[in-house]
Amino acid sequence: MGGGYFRRTVNKKIIVPLIGIITLIILVIGISYAAFTYSGIGAKENVITTANISMVYNEGENGITLENAIPMEDEVGKKLIDENQIFDFTVNINIVGKTAIAYEVTAEKDNNSTLQDNEVRIYLEKSNEADNYKEILEPNKYIPLTEEDEFGAKAGEMVLDTGSTIETTTYYYRLRMWVSKEYQLGSEAKHFTIKVNVYGSDGKVTLNKPTAPTITGGSEEYALERTIKVSEEAKLASGISKYQYYLTKDKDQLTGGTWKDIESDDKSITISEKGTQYVYFRAIGENGLAGDVSNKEEVNIGKTYNITNKIENGSFENGTIDNFTTQVSSKIELSTDLKYSGNNSLKYISSEEFSSVGYKTTFSLEENHVYYATEAVYILDNYSNHGQFDMVSSGGTDVTNKPEYGNVYLGSLKIKEWNKISFHFQSSESYSYGFRLSYSLSGLKTIYFDDIMFIDLTEVFGSGNEPTKEYLDKYLKYFDGESTIIYKNVTG
After folding, report:
1. Considering 271, 301, 331, which residue would you say is the last residue of a domain?
2. 25 and 83 both lie in a single domain
3. Structural domain span for residue 236
4. pTM of the entire structure?
5. What is the pLDDT of residues 64-89, one digit of tens each?
6. HEC string for the chain
């Protein structure tokens, strides 16, 4: 094993072949209306009982000796797994009536120990199911109490674990102990002996419920599935026996669902049911108390839609600007100086008032269809109210009297940085309209455009199921040609 091994002995005889000998002897103390102590030899079960409490300790063979011990790293000691290298013990608490029980597990050093407190490392794990042990005491030196505590543990003992419960409970412990890597080997054989004490009280006990965990993973953005999980900090919280989750369609309160146990080791759940749900978590303490409810996470599960950007090469990444046009007196060119994404953008230099730049192809709008248009814009100066991002009728008439068709003024944008702008409208007629990136710059102005899109939302999602402008502004990423998007199912 490299680090030595434990040998079990039935007579508690300490064998010291080299150095770092550690013998574990178990003693149980239960305190309710009075104090009790019990120690015994053999593999039988030892029980302490009062009118309200039954504390059970399963001794097994009650001696462990570390032979041929050498100092080792904590990471090595934590992984000792041979049955002769670990010591398992169980604390059973049997509640009679409605009594609340608090308990404390301690280690008590034998005064004859010759190793110093800082020359040993003590490590304790705990489980509610005799497997899946979790660390509750990280490797540490022996740290004695300076005075008797409220459970009755004496000065000189080291607290290993504390807790409380309101229901019959079994706790499984796994103890490891090894010689610190800092210990300097010498010629003199030394040892360190502890016994484990369990203290209990059924008097006035303050039972603390777990704090509310923080959970993450939700979003108003639609997905095919989402995984909701507790924070890393919550995973490390002590005194937790399990986590539960609650699903509801009610945005404001916990109704229509039930609390269910989380089975995964990483304390997460994956949701794939279509529709909008709200998720809460809570922790259940080892004392049986349910903790406060977590923050709420929104989960939107939808389906996949095929979507088309009607603006071809709207990010100019094919190296051309052939699909765009302006007046003869104005100028457009491919630019690599400024770009919102990729390598290129469209640079537009206007030379007269009412100059405009737009897409060459007009679009036949369908009556009652909902459309979405967006572009990234970089302006160099404050253009006041000039420069409109809009639609224009095929006859050349703008839609100033129909502000829902655009009329997004560039003059309100931040200068010398990229701005994402958009408009979202329902067509009131079936007619052909042009798509203008900007109109009426009032004189010589320079402006850059990138990531331009125009989408017929009704064609993609169906009437009444079109995403809002705010949703698309936040979640729709630029694409050229055809792509897919996940959004809510029309029935969900």
Report:
1. 301
2. yes
3. 215-301
4. 0.60
5. 444 446 789 999 999 988 776 777 88
6. CCCCEEEECCCCCCCCCCCCEEEEEECEEEECCCEEEECCCCCCEEEEECCCEEEEEECCCCCEEEECCCCECHHHHCCCCCCCCCEEEEEEEEECCCCCEEEEEEEEECCCCCCCHHHEEEEEEEECCCCCCEEEEEEECCCCCCCCCCCCCCCCCEEEEEEEECCCEEEEEEEEEEEECCCCCCCCCCEEEEEEEEEEECCCCCCCCCCCCCEECCEEEEECCEEEEECHHHHCCCCEEEEEEEEECCCCCCCCCCCEECCCCCCEEEECCCEEEEEEEEEEECCCCECCCCCCEEEEECEEEEEECCCCCCCCCCCCCCCEEECCCCEEEEECCCCCCCCCEEEEEECCCCCEEEECCCEEECCCCEEEEEEEEEECCCCCCCCEEEEEECCCCECCCCHHHCCEEHHHCCECCEEEEEEEEECCCCEEEEEEEEECCCCCEEEEEEEEEEEEHHHHHCCCCCCCHHHHHHHCCCCCCEEEEEECCCCC
